[in-house]
Amino acid sequence: MAHRGASFHAPENTRAAFLKAYELAADGIETDLQLTADGEIVIHHNYYIDNTSNGRGAIALMRTEELKKYDFGSYKGAAFAGERILTLQELLPILKDMEIINLELKSHLDKQVDFAGKVLEAVRESGLADRVIYSSFDARLLGELKKKDASCRVGLLTFHQKMQGLLREFSAVFASKYPVQDVKTLLERAGETKTLTELVDSLPYRPDYLHPDYHSVLEDPALVGEMHARGIGVNPYTCDDPEEMRALAQAGCDGIITNRPDLAARSVRGDFAGR
């Protein structure tokens, strides 16, 4: 799966990147969904557009019409000048010939908005629901998707376990600077440590896939078997090294999310044949 499209070769999450993914023989793509101030679903990874456009600001505070004014391609080179941010409705027809469409839902800042419902409706209207895996680091959001459509496939994204200490500290810093309703609960939950298997087993639903940082699999290849025993596929992210890709394939992973689908196609396509 081409991460944010073929983002090594073209500006991430743009039409150019998704078309390049076809050219490089990717089986699918991974991309990111965010909600604008006027409730539109747009394709972008960061909450702010500063790093990938000639504009500045938070997507949640901007209307689609405003976002469309900015250039999201030139940061990658003059050849990509004029690339505009895509809406989900614009993206899905581009992906109609992709085998896998991995839509990552970013946690929306306004929890009153039915983000899950909006995404499901757009995908249903496209006729591509059978190609889609919905992924998120937000287990609650994946649970909402499952409640609304039990047949949809969801993939739980997880950070590399070594990130847990950093995230604990970040939670404390956040609570010290901004109003938090329940500081005690925030700090206690941030302090929880679980193996990935324990995390999956603790959920009130069964995810269809686990999408771990690929180092988690390299350090513990048995993780794949533990997930498969639960009927859960494993698609690690974001591996760009051919030798490490081969190690992931040999561990039994179902797919690989990569910035370099060209290298993956040459290195491990045969290992995934028939899966």
Shape designation? globular
Radius of gyration: 19 Å
Considering DSSP H and I runs of 4 or more, what fraction of the residues is helical?
Answer: 25-40%
Indicate the low-confidence ranges by residue numbers. none
Order of helices and strands: EHEEHHEHEHEHHHEHHEHHH
Q: Please state roughly what percent of the residues sit in beta strands, choosing from under 5%, 5-15%, 15-25%, 25-35%, 35-45% or over 45%.
A: 5-15%
Helix-strand makeup class: alpha/beta
* Total of helices: 13
Task: Say how many strands there are.
Answer: 8
**N-to-C span:** 15 Å
Major sheet attributes: 8 strands, mixed
Overall pLDDT score: 95
Give a written overview of the molecule:
Strands 1, 2, 3, 4, 5, 6, 7 and 8 form an eight-stranded mixed β-sheet that branches. This protein has 275 residues and is of the alpha/beta class. The model has no long low-confidence stretch (mean pLDDT 95). It is 38% helix and 13% strand. It has 13 helices and eight strands.
Features:
8 strands; 275 residues; alpha/beta; 8-stranded mixed beta sheet
Question: How is this fold's topology laid out?
Answer:
Blueprint: E1 2-3, H1 15-23, E2 28-35, E3 41-43, H2 64-67, H3 88-94, E4 100-105, H4 115-126, E5 132-136, H5 139-148, E6 153-158, H6 164-177, H7 183-190, H8 196-202, E7 209-212, H9 214-219, H10 222-229, E8 233-234, H11 242-250, H12 261-267, H13 269-272
Helix pairs in contact: 3-4, 4-5, 6-7
Q: What is the compact description of this entry?
A:
The protein is α/β, with parallel strands linked by helices and 275 residues long. It has helices at residues 15-23, 64-67, 88-94, 115-126, 139-148, 164-177, 183-190, 196-202, 214-219, 222-229, 242-250, 261-267, 269-272, and strands at residues 2-3, 28-35, 41-43, 100-105, 132-136, 153-158, 209-212, 233-234.
